[in-house]
Amino acid sequence: MDPRSKERSQLYYQTKATEAARN
């Protein structure tokens, strides 16, 4: 798996978690 892809996935889920916490 591409390390950059994994990094992007972590950022994506982190952002989703932040939005969920905000709501």
TrEMBL record:
Source domain of life: Eukaryota
Region (Disordered): 1-23
Protein name (database record): Uncharacterized protein
Source species: Arundo donax
